[in-house]
Amino acid sequence: MDMNQMSFNPMNWHQLCLSSSSTVSVWTIERSNQEHHFKSKLIQLPLEDGTFFNETDVIFPPSLPKDPIYGPVMPLSAIAGLVGEEAETFRPKDDLYPLLHPTMHCWTPASDLYVGCEEGPLLMINGETLKVTVLSKIEEAPPMDRGNLISPVTLVYQKEGVLASGIDGIVYSFTIKDSSYKVENFLEFEQPVEHLIFSPSYKMLLIQTEKGSVYIYTFGEEPTLDKVLDACDGNFQAIDFITPGTKHFMTLTHSGEVCVWWIEDCARAGKIYLNTPVTVLACSPSSLSAVVGTVGGSVHFLDVNDVESPRVVHKTFLSESPVQHLVYDQRGMYLFVGTSEGNVFVINAKPSSSFQILGFTEVGKDILQISTVSLLEIDIVEVMVLSSLAETGRSRLEIFTLPTILPQVAETFTDERGRLRDELIHKYLYEVEHTLSSAVLDFQSNQIYGFCDQVPYICSYLLPEEEHSGVYILKPHQKVQSRHYGPGMFYLSSHGWWLITIAKCGILCVRDVYTLETFARCRSHSHQGHGIQLMRISMDGQSILVNGRDDGTLVYLKWKLFGGNLASEALKHYQHLLISLSSTMNEENEYLIATPRVSLDLGSEAEHTTPQNVKLSIDSSLEELVPDDAMKEIPWIQQKSQQAIEKEVKLFSQKRKEIKNRIKVLAKTVLNMMEENEKVDKIAKLEQQEFGLDLEELERLKDESEKEVSKIRKNVEMHNLAKSYLAELIKEECWNSMAVKGRALKCFHLPYVVENFPMKERTDEELKELKRVLQQKKIETECLKLRREIVEVQSPAVLVKQRHEEDDEEEEDENKTVKNTNLLNYLLGSLSTDFGVDTSLLSSQLELHSREEKINQIILLKDIIYKVKTAFNNEFDAAYKQKEFEVARVKERNVRVQEIILDLDLGEKVWQPGFDDSEKPERTLVVESWEIKARRHVNPWQKAKTGLIVTREMERWFQSKSTDMRFRALMDMMGGVLDVKKEDILRMVIPQPDFMAKPDALWTEEERKQFKDYEKKVKDLNEEKDKYRKEELKINNLVFSLLLNEELSSRESFLNNYLTKKQEEKNQISEAIQKSREDLDVYREHYDNLLAEDKVLDRSFKKEFSEIPGHQVDILYKLFKRRPRIHKQKVNLDTTNIVPFGERPGSGKLNKDNFAQLMKAMDELDNVNNMPEGLDPLIWDHFCITRRAKVENEQKVKQKAAGLMEMMAFLRKRVEEDEQVQQEIEKVFQELVLLQEEKARCQLDLTIQILLKQGQVELENFQLTLEYSDAILINKNIIEDLNAVIRIQVSNLYHVRSA
Predict the structure, then answer these.
(1) CA 1274, CA 1277: separation in Å to the nearest integer?
(2) What is the rounded CA–CA span in Å between residue 1272 and residue 1263?
(3) Taking 60 as the threshold, does the pLDDT of residue 50 lie above it?
(4) Reading across the β-sheet that carries 224-229, which strands appear in turn?
(5) Do 69 and 1247 meet the contact criterion of CB atoms below 8 Å apart?
(6) C-beta separation of 316 from 293 below 8 A
(7) Which pLDDT band holds residue 1252 (cuts at 50, 70, 90)?
(8) What SUPFAM superfamilies does the record point to (predicted)?
C-alpha cells in the first residue's frame, strides 16, 4: 500500500488515518484483552470541482427497467465478463472522473480531520460519520502575493485553524469557522517547507525546508525565528582544501553555492551564491584564493581570507564551452583550465597579475584528467593531459612544459590568436593501446601511472628519453591488480610518494608510488550509490576528503596513527613547501584583501568587452566584422581571434585593394562574355555555370547536387518501397485471398447496378466444425426416428396427426418443390429455400434453448448464407457472361455501322458499349500508359524491341482476318457457342431493346410495355441480393441471445463467488465471536475472583485485628478506608490557552505512572507519625501491609473492569458484523433466485423471425390487440392436435351416454 502519511488521533488512539496521493482511509483499532482488530473505511473524495459523484452500488445495483425485446439489463461487470474480486469495484473508463488528490492531513480536538488537496480545496472529514465537507474559502479584496492556489505540503493543527506550508515556500495560517476559512500569510522562506511540528507546549514550531534547513519559530509577545541548521543546496559538485589544508575546506554545488567549512567539527563558516550553474572548484596553493568554473565557460576567482564572507574578486570569460577541469600546479604558479571543446587555458595564478591569461593549447576534446609536476628544485612546470579516443578504443596523452618565466615572455610563446606554440612548450603526443580512465605523471617525470578502464589493472608506462615526433605508442612497464571494480581515478599526494586510487566500488586505497602496493584502505561509500566521485588530500597528508557520486555524502578521513618514514617525508615536504611559499602567500593575500569585490552580473571590462573603436571593412567575398558599440559579452578566445583578424586586415590592406581591382576587371570581362554568349545560336551557347571561374567551387556545387539527388532518389525509393509493400498487403488481403473477386454489373442505359458477393475460401477449421455439426444433426435426426418407433406409444393425438398427413399427401405431391425441410416457410424466417438450399437440418426457432443448440444453429446458418451467396454469384456470373457476349456482338456490328456512316457521310458518332472499372476491378491493379502524366524514358534497345513487336502483331492480324468470317457467322447464328444449355438460357439477361436509344417521347405503347418488362427483370435481379440478409438477421439474434446468456452466467458466477467469500467471512467472524466469548468468560471469572477477594479483604478486616480494643479497631478501619490524594501537576494558564488538545485520555504507561505515584503517596500514610496513640508498632506494620494489599487489589479491579468493558464492546461489534454479513448473504441468495428465474425465462422466451408477405392491407375496423406481454407463442399443429383429441373424446363420451 503506497501511503504518504500516517497519524493517530491525539484524542483517541483507537483511530488511525492513512493518506496517499489518491486515497484517504480511517482505521479503527478495537482491543479484546491482548488481541487487536484493525478495520478500515475508505473516504469518498469529491471531484476536482468540489462536487460529489453519486456512485451506485456495483454489487447490488438498483433494479433497471427490462427491455421487452432484448431482455434484462445486466450490471456493467457482468457485461464485461468479470466474475472475481475485480467485479466488485469495476467501473468503465467513461464512468471514471478525476477526484481531488490529498497531500496532507491533521486531526482536530473534536476527532475530525482536515485534509489539504493538491488542487487547493480544504476538506473536513467527520470522525464518526466519515462525511466529507468541502470548506469554502473567504476571498479578500487584495490577492496574496504568491500562491492563490495553495497546495499544502504539510498541515499542523492549532487553535481555531491550521498552519499549512505550500510549494511556494510560504507558511499560511488558516482560520477556520464553521464551513469556511480565511487564509493569511504567516511565514515566508526561500525554499518550499516540507515539515511542520509543534512542541508539546505549543510555544515553538519546528520548520524544515526542502533543502534540509531547520528553523524554530517561538511564539510570544515578540515572536522569533531562529535557524538551527543551514543545509546545502543539493549534492556537492566539487571539494578542495584551503591552503594549507589544516583548518578549512570548500564545497561547491551545481546551482552555484560555495561554502567554507571548518575541518575540526565540519561546521559551516561561510558561503556565497554565484547564481549560475557551475562545474568545478580548485583552491590555490600560493594564496588564499579559489577558482570556480561554470557551465557558461567563465571562471570566478574568490577571496577566502575571510572565511565567513568569501567574495568574488575577478571573473574571466574564456570560451563558450563549459569548464570541466581546474588544476593548480604544486607551487601555485599557474592555473590550467580544461574545457569541453578540447582547449587547455594557462592563467597566471597570482592575484597580483589580475589572473592574466597567458595562452591556450589545443588537445583532445574528451579531456579526462590534467596532471602537473612543479617541484621547488626545477624552474619548469610539466603538464600532462589525458583524453579519450573513443573511435579507436585508445587513450591519448599530451605532455608539454612551461617555464617559470612564462608571464614575462608570454607574447613570444603565443601566436596572434593566443595559442601557445608547440615547439616552444615542447609538446609531445603519446597513445596507449587501451582505454584509461585516469593517468598521472610522477615527480621524476620519467613514467606515467594509468588506471585501466575496461580491466581491473593499474599500469605504469616509461617515457622515452630521446625526443620524438608524431605519436609515440606506450607499452605497459608494470602491471598490478587494482582490487577495484568499475572505472577509477588517480591522485598524487603533495610530496609525490603516495598514489591514491578511488573507484565506483566506494573504496579508497593509498599505495606506494614505487611498488603500487596498498598500505591503507577504507570503504567510505557504497557501490549502490555509484561509489566515489572525487577526492582531495591536504598538503601535510593528514586529512582526506572523499565525496560520493550519488549518495549526497561528504566523508572526512583522518589517520588513526600517523608516523614512520611515510609520515616524516610528508611533513618534511609540507614544511619545506610552506617556507618557500610563505613570502609569496603574504604578498598575494595582501593584494587580495585590497582588491574590490566584483559584481556577479558584471565581469572585468578588460576581459569581457570588445574594443569600441574597431572599424573594419573587408571585401564582400571575404569575412566581415560588423562594428557594434554595444556588442554583447564575448569570450577571450574570440577576442584574440578578432584582434588577429584586425591586424591582418591592416597589414594587407594595400594588397587587398589591388586584388579587389583585378577582380572587378575580371568580372567586367566575364559579363561581356556572357552578353556575347546570349547573342549566339542555341547550339553554340554555353551554360551559365560554365562562366564560373572558381573551379573548386563548381566542383563542390556539383558534388553537393549529386549528393542531394542521391539523397532524394534514396528517399523516393524507400517511399516507393513502403507504398509497394502496403499495396501488396492490401492486394493480398482484399484481392488475392478472395476466391470470388468483387465486381459489379451495370445496365447499358439505366442507373441500375448489381454487385456480386466477394467471398473467401472457408478455412479447414471452419469446414471441420461444419462437418462436425452436420454429422451431429444427422445423428440426432436418426436417433429421433428410432425413438419415435421404439418408445412412443400410439396416442390419439398421433393417430389424428397421421390422418392429417395422409389427407395432405396428395396436395403435397402436387406442390412439391425443391424445398426439403420440415419447417414452415414463415417460421423458417427467410427465403433461402428459393435458392435451392437445403434447410432440413436447421432446428426450429421455437426449440433453441441451450447454448450448444444456438451455436450449432449459427454454424448452419453461416453455411446456408455461404450457399446462398454462391448461388447468387453463379447467376451473377451467367449475367456477366451474357453482357460480355452482347458487348462483343454490338462492337462487331458497330464496325459495319461505322462503315455505313462514313459512306453516307453523316458525321454521327457511334455509341460503343464497354465495362467500367467496377465491372472489371482487375484494371485497378494495372497501371496503363495513359495514366502516367510524366514523359516516359525509353532506352534505344526498348525502342528496337517495340518496333519488332509491332511488326509481328501486324502479321498476326492479317492472318486472323482470314478466319474472321467464320467467327462472325458463329456470333450471329449461335450466340458464340455451338451448344446452348437450358440452364444457361434461363439465366441469361434479356438484352436492352433497340428503341431505348430513342427519346422517351418517341416510344410507342408496345415499346413502353417492353421497357417495363425489362425494368422489372433488372430490378428483380438486383433485389435477390438482399434475400440473404434475413439469414444474417437470424444469426445476429442468436449471437445476442448467446451474449445475454454469457452475461447471465457471468453474473451468476460472480454472485456464487461473492457468496463463497461472504460465507468464509461469516465463518471467520463466527470463530472470532466464539473465541471472544470464551476469552470474555475467562476474563469475567478473573474479574469476579478479584472482586470477591476485594470484598473478603473488607469484611475480614475486623477479624484480622480482633485482638486489639474495639475503639482502636474503629480508628484503624477509618484509616483503612482512607486513600491518599494525588496532587496533579499544575498546568500553566498560558499553556492551557495555547494547547488545542487539552487533557488527553490516559494510556497504559500513564496508568502505570499514576499507580506508582499512588503507591508513593501511600508511603506517607504508612508513616509512624500517622499511627494512633497506644497502638503497638507491630500491629501498625501489619495494618499498613493489609491496607497496601487492599489498594493494590482495588487498582487491579479497576483495570479488570476497564478491560471487561473493552471486551464486551469488542464482542458486540463482532456480533453486529456477523448480522450484517448474514443480511448480505441473504441478499445474495435472493439475487441468485431472481437471476435463475430470469435465466430460465430467457431460455424459454425466444426471439424468432417470421417471414411475412409483402404488401399492405387496409382494415376498416382496426381492433387488433397490440400488447402481447402475457401471450404465449406455440405451434398451430399442437392446438389442432389437441382439438382433434378433444373432439374424439367428446364423440366417445356422446356414444357412451347414448348407449
Answers:
(1) 9
(2) 20
(3) yes
(4) 193-198, 204-209, 214-218, 224-229
(5) yes
(6) no
(7) low
(8) WD40 repeat-like
